[in-house]
Hints:
By secondary structure, the chain is mainly alpha-helical. It has five helices and four strands, in the order αββαβαβαα. The strands form two sheets. It has a two-stranded antiparallel sheet. A two-stranded parallel ribbon has the order 3-4. The model is unreliable at 139-153 (pLDDT under 50).
Amino acid sequence: MERMNDRAGSPAQPSDLIDLTELVQAYYALVPDVSISEQRVVFGTSGYRGSSFDTAFNEVHIAAITQAIVEYRASQGIAEPLFIGRDTHGLSQPAETTALEVLAANDVHALKGEFDDFVPTPTLSHTIITYNAAGHGESCRRHHHHSEPQPTA
C-alpha cells in the first residue's frame, strides 16, 4: 500500500509554489526539441500534460496539436463549430489563446465560455450534447457548411 505524504491536507509552503509569470514566459519562449523524448507531446489518460519549464508544454506543442485537429476535422468533413474551454492550470489561458489563434487562421468557428473563465468539463459536455441534440451537428456534417449556433451555456 502506498504511504500518504506527511504534508497531505496541509497548506502549501512557499517552496511548493511556482512563479506563474515565469511559467507563462517559458510557454512562449522555450521551443521543444523533437529529438528529446521528454519534450515531445505525450497524451495520457488525463490528456496532454507537462510543464513549460521543462519544455514539455509550450506554444509550439499547442499550435501543432490544434493544427492536427483542424486537419482531421477537414479530412472528415466536419464543419460545425469547435467548442473550447479551459481549466484552472496555470498554462490553460495561454494554451487557449494559442488554440484560438490557430483555429481562426484556419477559419474554424470556435465557441468558448461566455464569461472568459474556467469551464468545467461537465458544463462543456452538456453544451455540446445540447447543441447536437438540437440537430446542428448533423446538418453541418451532411451539408459541409457552417451554421451559426446559438450559445447554450
